[in-house]
Amino acid sequence: MVEAEGSSPPPTIKFAYILRGYVMKNIRVVVVDDSALSVALISEILERNGYEVVGSAGGLDEVKKVIKETMPDLVTMDMTMPGTDGLECTRAVHEINKDIRVIVISSMMDDEIVSQAKRNRVSGYIQKPVDDGDLVAIIERVMSAEELFTVLKSEYFEVFKEALRDGLNRLTKTLITYEEEFLCESEYTTEGVAVMIGIIGEFPGKMLISLSKSTAHVLTTTVLKREPSGNDEIVETMSEFANIVAGNACSVLNKRNRAYGLRVSPPSVLRGDNMKISPLNYPTYTVIGETVFGKMLMNVGFKRGEIDAWT
């Protein structure tokens, strides 16, 4: 998908806010450390605080084996181990299951190490000796965000479909019938007008509405109750229509859970024939609907944000 220009970075949201009234599932943890003492101490803290330790490992081969056997929700990761390091082991974990969260627990901690850890999708980093409160706080922030994203994934597509249906009805007193829905995994072609809306918040995303030139023209004529003065007025109308759809959908999601903190960015408009839209690097879903004006396509998706769980 073509990136919209001028999008603002996601705001930082305190995870204590996410945790308020949020019930977490039982969390299964694998402890990775080449020190038997560290494994014992970390495991004791975890179990004392209600987490389930399902395995441990002290090297790369052991990491691969225990992750495949247990498929935990979370891994605590030592940074220095004989023959390997925490970053290589983290990559191995994510090759098996990219959704497993990793928190590094290491005696070493400096800006370069932390930067490398973030580049390797480490969700949190704390320094030995481990404090109970610090470890529990990081786990709660990391895992509550993960569960919150799971909830968002389960509901956003239907919310956006309803917002499109409602927006069209309010502006034109007409209906849309959804004919086809699919996961967008490859490049696709669109013609006419495509409006991209960036979504910022705890979990950033994108929404795209695409329609042909003739559909955009007739829809604009109906909304304005007159012929548009030119292409610029059609683009302006379609941009506002897409902005209304995205804004209303985000408002509904925020009402369901204020921790999402979703807001829309200014529209970015593409015009032309045979425009190639590349998929994003995270899953998005497409729905194609039939209206009295012609077909309309909407594509929308969200990705995990960078978790602010660093002490």
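The above is record 1. Record 2 follows with the same two-line structure.
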Amino acid sequence: MSDKICSDFLVKYQQEKEELQRELNDLIRRTETASKDEQDVDEYIRRLKSYAGAETLTRQMCIDLIEYITIDKYQGKKVPRDIHIYYKLIDKPLTDRKNALAK
């Protein structure tokens, strides 16, 4: 086999190896994310079950279950404002408080 052919094989092998490594890293990341999501859902269900049958909403229930709440600014119209409730372990956590306060 000539040096040129060997060199070409080596380059192709290296490219394939790098591509496979990227795919592996992506699969590992997605698996870890899916596992974390599953754990979060299980924890949220556990918390909900602990409050099953509750007839009133308590402060502790809100602390355990709600991440944050946003209320759209009042526009001076007689239309109801939108209220969004973001739950712990289910919704994305608040990363930018300024944006949430600006709504």
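Residues 38 and 89 are 10 Å apart (CA to CA).
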